[in-house]
Fold:
Amino acid sequence: MAPTTTDKIKGLICRECGKTYPPVSLHVCDMCFGPLEVQYNYEAIKSRISRKTIEAGPKSLWRYIDLLPIQGEPTVGLYAGLTPLIRAKNLGDELGLDKLYIKNDTVNHPTLSFKDRVVSVALTRALELGYDTVACASTGNLANSVAAHAAAAKMQCYVFIPHDLEASKVLGNLVYRPNVVEVEGNYDDVNRLCSEIAGERKWAFVNVNIRPYYAEGSKTLAYEVVEQLGWIAPDQIVIPMASGSLLTKIWKGLNEFHKLGLIDGLTTKVHGAQAEGCSPISAAYKQGRDFFKPVKPNTIAKSLAIGNPADGYYALKATAESGGAMDSVTDEEIVEGMMLLAQTEGVFAETAGGVTIGVLKKLVKQGVIKRTDTTVALITGNGLKTQEAVMHAVGRPTRISPSLAQFLKTFNLDKHER
Ligand SMILES: *Cc1c(COP(=O)(O)O)cnc(C)c1O
Structure:
């Protein structure tokens, strides 16, 4: 399929100078080096989209296909998205919130993180643009999702990861048999290398040369939250940040629903969450700057460990526009957040989830989020992938011999109660 404009996609537009391009594989403006994003024809979309058409769509993120940057039908990732929105009463009681919800992307299909959304869109688009090889620079979850989807789509695949990832995230690449490249450096080194390779090879690097399409997949988290709340935008959303892309796209998605008349008003505040050991964006927020200073990451939240975040500036802008806030938490608070979520709601999230819960707790304490606000926390990855983080905190099973007497004695139970 040739990359032409359609009635829904106008093309790409530079976020800085506004120069427009056809919808090809390009991510940087050749005039001003600003990042490009997909531009839609909202008039055309408005005439064919409604709450009813969406509700009648597939039980996946593809129910929002009219707002996703592909020309034809989806071909990759047909089952991603539409994860549960959990009414988190127990955690709400604990934190002092009457209407708390957890958006549970720990059970996304097929690789248990929010990255299954962006990859479904990116690989479908990559095939439309004629690529047979996909690649990515990843902090872990993206590589897992690209590797799994590439296997199912029979595409050649190279994933690039830092050398110090969690064991499950490394294994979660190898099992699909892509080329797994472990780089002696941090994510920012991996990303720089991938930009160089992307200039050299005709490969679809999902978060480099086809980043404008990839990033749009994140909007579906916002769409789902709104639909699952009964077509109401929440008062508050707390969002983990790595490159800051997810946060900017949540804000874009909410604004699109408002523009299309799918929600009545938009007063949602979007809040950004980072780990203290890698908090260039939230540090800028706290110091009142609209630009960030790159850092060297040092945190257990490896999925969020991007020291030079590509969308940091835009995340700060979106948060400010919405009237939201940002904060960060220590590694200790991350583990506390993971344990609290598991023990109140039965959801085992990865370190990024601990970041979100930790920052949510802080924002409630600070009075930024009020008891009566409808509040949503985005839980973006699965705890089984970052077991190292909680290993020291979970204790051991109680070991006994296979004897009734020993069992009763160990747990101080009466022999006859029934
Ligand atoms: C990638 C990722 C994010 C957010 O990433 P952005 O680069 O900010 O879009 C959040 N949580 C998890 C678990 C991730 O893997």
